Structure formats: structure tokens, C-alpha cells
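Can anyone check this?
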Amino acid sequence: MGRKSMEIKERLDQWIDEAIVILFAAMLIFMPALFGGTHVGAFAAAEIVVTVTLLLWGAKLWLKPSHRLFFSPVVWAVLGLTAYAAIEYMRAPIEFNTRKEVLKAILYCSVFFIFINNLRRRRHVKIFAFCLIGIATLISFYAIGQFLSGSTQILWETQAPIYAHRASGTYICPNHLAGLLAMVVPLALALTLAGRLEQHHKLLLGFATLVMLAGVAVTISRGGYIAALAAVAIVLGIFFQRPKYRIPSLFVAAILACGMVWFFMSTPPEIGSRFEQLTHSSQLQEGRGALYQSNLKMAAQTPLLGWGPGSYSSTVHQFLPENVQSDPLYAHSDYLQFYIEWGVIGLAGLLTLMTLAGIGGSQAWRYVRQRGSSLDPRDSTRTALFLGTVAGLIAIALHSLIDFNMHIPANAIVAVVLLAFLTSSLRYGRKSYWVKQSLPVRLIVSLFILLFAGILFWNSLLTLKSWSLSRRAAEPTLTVSEQAELLSDAQNLDKENWKIALQRGNLLLNDALSQEDPELLEWELSEAARSYRQGIENNHFEYRLFGGMAMVLTLQGQYDEAQACSEKMMKLRPNGSDTSAIHGWCALYRGDYELALNYLERSIHLKNEGNDFAKDWYEIAAKRLGAQKNLN
């Protein structure tokens, strides 16, 4: 009976291992394929997948008492950052934004621990590497097709005009496709050169490498080019030191050089101008250069603990100059944004993690590198995977200096998986990092597994319900009152979600501006005010909430309260065309025509094209001011 019971447990343990592998492989495929995981459904699905794998790991702990846990310095650094995220949540100035960032930290921490404790075998790493190479190659084919055909279609969405003449595959932004490929290309290249694989497998990997490099090329991402070339240079540079790989390395370098020359000679002039812009001094005052200057001003005023995770998109507007009229969601530098949001302590923790990963990687290299003699060196899949992983991590670390790859869930998960493999490589030589199971250890780990699984599953359900209600509310066949009711349900579902409050308030306000029915107008204004107030309670940094509230109060005749909201809005975004227009509009309604004229004129100056609201009301303000002067 005891023997049969042991066999059943072993079989269950094997099934759990295979289930975890399948779930992880599926996640590594569908996350990049669905807008880089930025799609609400894709991210919720990832949370559910990780929830299930956590529970499977928990079951494995009790089925297999011999299962050991791996704790290296990097593991403690990951735990420390996750604990700091929990502390940041407790003091969150914008609960909804911080909650989303902390949940991402929990998701990535879970992925890291599941990998190093369940998926560290070479067979598992090979499976994940081939999954990544396969999906990245397919996405690259899609991107090449987009580039050659001039298509602006990304799955069922339309590409933003700012990315014209650039391909992004299944990603929204071409830069983030380049970030993914920069992590995966070195894996394929290293396996092609040194993997212990069948010859036809190597041919396929070599072909995939070329396709992915072409995928990087058509993104026209300057940072992506640097990151991918750095990764390729690292792999080729290391293999070039070994006589067996010297000629193949030179051959690959020659193909890459010829491909780059041909691509730049045959591409449209619009692409070349993108690189010429880097030499213009005006770049420091425009576009991303102006945004970086705003970021540095913001960073100079960052408190010790930061502005709060996820707060950047709401707080940056008060630092933006006149020539930036967009609403930046990210700082275009993961390190700078991490410092702004998480403060000195958070940045120190991140740099500590990166330093420990580098030290651990250099230690692990002694155990995974090829030890064959120079006269008879042997191929090694383990060595190839390790070098590809290191090069991929260096590539994404470089690219994140000037972009926000770590805010794209698919790229962040791939980076975490690579970090987990690098960390788990120390298992070859450090027995002191292994922790044997005891009842207290098993109980503590199980408690954290249940906690993380419960949090992720709860958030996935909440997110999907809110998203479903918001989508239904956007249907054009519904009346405004029906749309508002659905959004009200979404507000009640997640009271801290200020974005839904803003969406509902804007919906009712926009209809009220043209409403002729007095009773319906009164209801719409009161409901819009309720939504804006709820939004302001949960995010007192968002200027659009104060702007909407100012307009509602103005229409209700509450001019003093409206003026206070309007002035608060101007403090939060002093150089905005939209804020200047609203401030002028409110002044016009309360009879201050001169002030209205000044701010509406300033709005037009800041943004002329497409600013019909300010232009129309400017003419009205000018006529009323002229009439007032004539009376006087």
C-alpha cells in the first residue's frame, strides 16, 4: 500500500511539473502575441495562469517533501523589492495606480519564484527558449509584412499615426517589439553557434535569427538597434575567442554588416531622417528631449520614498513645458521613472538586484561554461542558453535606459524569466543556497503562495468585470443614460478607479453641453459632479478631473467653487492648451471676458491645429468684451 501510494505521488508530481511547463509556455506565447500583454484580457489571463501555477507549486510542496527551495542573494533582493512595494502601497497617494503597479510586482515575483523552484532544468529552459524564439519569429514575419505592405493594422487595432513607416508586429509601439527581439535574438544566435542540437534544428534557428534581426530592422527603433547589436556583439565576441567558433562568428558578423548596409540603402528617406534627427540640437528642446528635461525637474523634487508607484502619468503634467502638449504615460526611461515613483530607496533596491544578478552570473559562468580543450571543444546547449540569457538581459537593461520596456507586461515577464534562469544557474556550484523543507518552512511558503494566488485571482476577476462594463458602455447604440448606468456599476465595483469616474463624468458633461431638456440637463450635471468628486477623492493629482469639475460647477452657476477647481487644474498643468481653454471658458461664463480672452488666446498659441473649442469660444469672448467696452 505504501509503495503504491508513493507511485501515485510520484505520478502526480510529474503531472504537476508538466502542467506548470505547459502553462508557462502558453503564457510566454500569448502575452507577446496580444499587444505585448497590454491588452486587459491578456494581462488578466496571465494573472490566472500564474494563480494556477502557484497553487500547483503549493500542492507539490506537500506531495514531495524532498522538494527543496532555492535562495540566493538575488532571491532575497527580489523579496526585498516586493516587500517594499507592499510598503509603498500602504502610503499610496493614488491607490488605483499604485495597486496596479504592486500587482505587477507580485505577478513578476511569482513568476520568478515558480521558475527557480520548478522550472530550472535544462529541458525546461530549452522549451521556454524555443517558445520565445518561435513566437518572436512569427511576430517578426508579421512586422516585416506590415513594413513591406505599408499596413497600419495591428491585429484588430489601427496603428497610431506617430509610428508611420515603422512596423510593430503585434505590439502597439515598435520600440517594444525591438525590446522583445533584443532579448530573444541572442538566445537563437547562441544556440545556432554552440547548441548541442541536430543540424536541421540549427539551420532553423539560424533562419529564425535572421528573421528576428530583420524584425528589429523594420521597427526603426534607434534604441532597439543599439540593444540588439550589443547583444549580438556579446555573443559573437565570446564565441570568437574559441577557435572552433571563430569562422562562424566572422561569417555571422559579415552577414549582419551586409544586411545593415543593404537595409539603410534601400529604405525610404523618412527612415533616414529619423536617425539624422539625433544630430540636431533642436532635439534637446523638442519631443523626447523636452520630456527628459521635464523628468529631470520632476526627479529633482522627488521625495525620499518617491511620488508613489504608478503616479508618474498624473503628476508629470505640472513639470511639462509649453512645447509638450501630449499626455505622457511613461518617462521613456525605466530607471528614471522608477526613481521618480519609488524614490531613492526603491532605486537602490533595483540597482542592488542588478548588481547581485551580475555577480551571481559571473559566479555561475564558472560552472556552466564549456570545459572542453581547445583542440576538441564540444557544443554545449547549457553554455549557449546561459550566454544568450546574459546577452538578452544586458540588451534589455540598455534599452530600458531610453524606453519603458518594463512597463510592457510581456517584455517584463520575459526579462524576469531570463533573470530567473540566470539566478538558478548557481545551483550547479552553491549547495548552501538550497533550503530543505521543514514543516515551518512549508507552512510559510504555502501561506505566501495562497496570499499571492488570492490577490492575483481577485484582481483578474475585478479587472475583467470593470473592463466588460466599460466596453459595453462604449457601444454607440446605447443612450447616454444607459452608458452612464453601466459606468456607474463599474464605479461601484471599484470605487478607487478614478479612470472610470473620469470617463463617466466626461460622458455626462459632453452631453450636457448640448442638452436642451432642463430636467435631463440637471440630472446629467449632478451625476457628472458626483463622478468627478469620486475621482478627485482617489486622485488629487489628475488635472482632467478638476477641469471637468470646474466646467460642471460653472454650468450649475457655482462660480466661486468652479474658479477654485479651475485654478487647481492650472496648478496641476500650467502649460496645457486644454487647461488654458477650460480656464478661459469658465472665466467667460462668470463674466470675466478679458481673462477669458487671454487664456483662450494662449490655448490657441499652445495648440493651433484641431483646437476648435478654444477658437470658437475665443470669438465669443472677443465679441462680449467688445460689447462690454462699448457700454462703458
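Reply from J.R.: I decoded it. The two ends are 105 Å apart (CA to CA).
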